[in-house]
Amino acid sequence: MQNKYKLPDYLRLNALAIVKSYKSYKKEVNDEENRIFSFGSANYETVGQERVYLPSGKGGKSSPTEDQAMQLEKLHTSYPYKCVQAVDDALNTVLKNYAHIHSEKIRAALIRSCECGKTFNFTYSGIDGLSRASFYRLKNHFLYQICKKMRFF
């Protein structure tokens, strides 16, 4: 059977690198979002019983909400955020025809397969009702979708 999701080696390696760094990128993005949304992230002074917010930037006055919006915009244009979104979107695209119970196992096996490489063993992945050939076809489709979402081609 011919594979319509065949990628050149350099694109395949780029997609695999994104999947390998997915967990650390996801943790980094979540930590940054939590930092932005936490109440202690704004610069303020306490005057009496009121908080007086200090201006941010170079002499300009802005509210903490504007600062959070600017920080979120900066985060959402960052490379780690785009990688996390690409992997999540690719997984949702590839697994849209599978039941939720099976899709969670397949999702974990796909990520583990990309992270482990040749040491990944399909027979121990615990996926019932999916052949080895179908799994690796899904993996190729997954990597293709990542390249498409990241606009590598």
Terminal CA distance reads 24 Å
Order of helices and strands: HHEEHHHH
Which strand order do you get reading across the main beta sheet? 1-2
What is the CA-based Rg, rounded? 21 Å
Helical content stands at 55-70%
Class by SSE composition: mainly alpha
Could you say which overall geometry the principal axes of the C-alpha atoms support?
elongated
- What profile does the largest beta sheet have? 2 strands, antiparallel
Number of helices: 6
Count all strands and give the number. Answer: 2
Rounded mean pLDDT score: 87
Low-confidence stretches: none
**Strand composition percent:** 5-15%
Describe the structure.
With 153 residues, this protein is mainly α. It contains six helices and two strands, in the order H-H-E-E-H-H-H-H. The protein has helices at residues 9-20, 22-37, 64-76, 79-94, 100-116, 132-149, and strands at 44-47, 50-53. A two-stranded antiparallel sheet has the order 1-2. It starts with 8 loop residues before the first helix and ends with a helix. The mean pLDDT is 87.
